[in-house]
Amino acid sequence: MMTLGRRVGPGVARGTPFRLTVDGEPVEAYPGETIATALLAANRRVARRTALRGAPRGVFCAIGVCHDCRMVVDGEANVRTCLVPARAGMVVETQAGFGPATDPGPTGDRR
According to CATH, what is the number of the domain 18-96? Predict the structure, then answer.
């Protein structure tokens, strides 16, 4: 029986929460959650905006296939947040287009 953390429903313990920063705002997360999970729990749906139209994108497949959840994490662009575990102190930013450190190549972002 776990004594630390918060219980959610019968027999479910989430552990001790911690914080990461998303676009300058604190977001609470729990051990074992991905960044995307913490964002969805905090009702934050937009991970990035497309390069051409600025259309919002967020978690779609949640298994790393679609790449719509890409964000800038600790200064690294194009991190698939559905695959990366959240950790205390992380700095996450909404990504614009292809992010600050990448080259889109000849095809660009047409979505």
Answer: 3.10.20.440
Print burial letters for 71-101: b (CB count within 10 Å at least 16), e (below 16).
Answer: bbbeeebbbbbbebebeeebebbbbebbbee
Maximum CA extent, the chain: 55
Among residues 80, 98, 4, which one has the least CA distance to residue 39?
80
Rounded to the nearest 10°, the torsion over CA 69, 75, 76, 80 is: -20
Q: What is the pTM of this model?
A: 0.79
The separation between the first and the last C-alpha atoms of the chain, rounded to the nearest angstrom, is 48
Q: Which two tokens stand for residue 87?
A: 């950790």
13: β partners: 7
Q: Tens of pLDDT along 63-105?
A: 999 999 999 999 999 999 999 999 999 999 999 988 875 455 5
